[in-house]
Amino acid sequence: MSAEADHGHAGQQRGQDRRALRRALAIAAGLLAIEVVGGIASGSLALLADAGHVATDMASLALALFALHLADREPTASKTFGYRRTEILAALANGTALGVVAVFIALEAVGRLASPPEVKSGLMLAVAAAGFAANLFAGAMLFRRREHSLNLRAAFLHVLSDALGSLGAITAGLAIQLFGWRLADPIVAIAISALILVSSWRLVRESVDVLMEATPSHVELGELERAIRGVAGVLGVHDLHVWTLTSGYHAMSAHVDVRMDADPHAVLHMLSDLAKRRFEIEHTTFQLEEQPPLLHIEPAAPVN
């Protein structure tokens, strides 16, 4: 596939990502209004906590859209890779925001354990069910896009955790309505915060790995080095580095020792093809260093 075709496909993919994010943002805005009103009217902490989470989702979705817009900007003399890393910064901000929301929910819920307030379970159930349906719809739109980008994956995780929050609120509403167990509301809120913390930690960890230029998880450096050494004409490799520029876009550089009689163009082609086909590394920089052939010295004849 040509560079122009690759660029066109990437642009089409980002356009589809933007449409999915816009629709999810519209759903989140409607859900926020419903849960705030429903949470206040019913007195449910689980609903109000989920509304706070939805508000964070709206900010994260808007940030994701902004990051996609910046990613389309052309490289400049000062930013030769363009603005690709903006996506990772947005994902890091989203993961951090998720963690803050989770801690706030947990602290508020713990405070209610000693004396859980009265909750209008019927209204709570209706609002939670509407929220669950809305989150499933938004999640379905983002599900197929989540593998294309860490930023889209962050948005999907936000929506998924919201769906789990709504499901928890439904469970708490049923427990209160059927058994009069008011503790269900703060307990479910604590459970929601734990789920959010797990997903936010993974997101922050992966974002930091990219920013620290860690080796991508799917690349085993020793295996890559052995594969490079196996290319015809290659004698050795050193100063090997592999990192991630942004989601799904990896880069590498290496100094490769080659035989003096090897065709450098053929070696470069084989190395680039190996990196892309076997290790999914798109951007490669190889510095070929010609090495003289090893002299074969015959052993000296024994002296009688």
Descriptive keywords:
mainly alpha, 8 helices, Alpha-Beta Plaits, about 65% helix, about 300 residues, Alpha-lytic protease prodomain-like, 3 strands, 3-stranded mixed beta sheet, elongated
In short:
The protein is built from eight helices and three strands; from the N terminus they run αααααααββαβ. With 304 residues, the protein is mainly alpha-helical. The chain has two domains: 3-211, Alpha-lytic protease prodomain-like, CATH 1.20.1510; 221-291, Alpha-Beta Plaits, CATH 3.30.70.
Describe what this molecule looks like in 3D:
It is a single chain. By secondary structure, the protein is mainly α. It folds into two domains: 3-211, Alpha-lytic protease prodomain-like, CATH 1.20.1510; 221-291, Alpha-Beta Plaits. Helices cover 66% and strands 11% of the residues. The protein is built from eight helices and three strands. It has helices at residues 3-42, 45-71, 86-113, 121-143, 150-179, 184-211, 221-229, 264-279; strands spanning 234-246, 249-259, 283-291. The protein has a three-stranded mixed beta sheet. The longest helix has 40 residues, at 3-42. It is elongated, with a radius of gyration of 27 Å. The model is unreliable at 1-9 (pLDDT under 50).
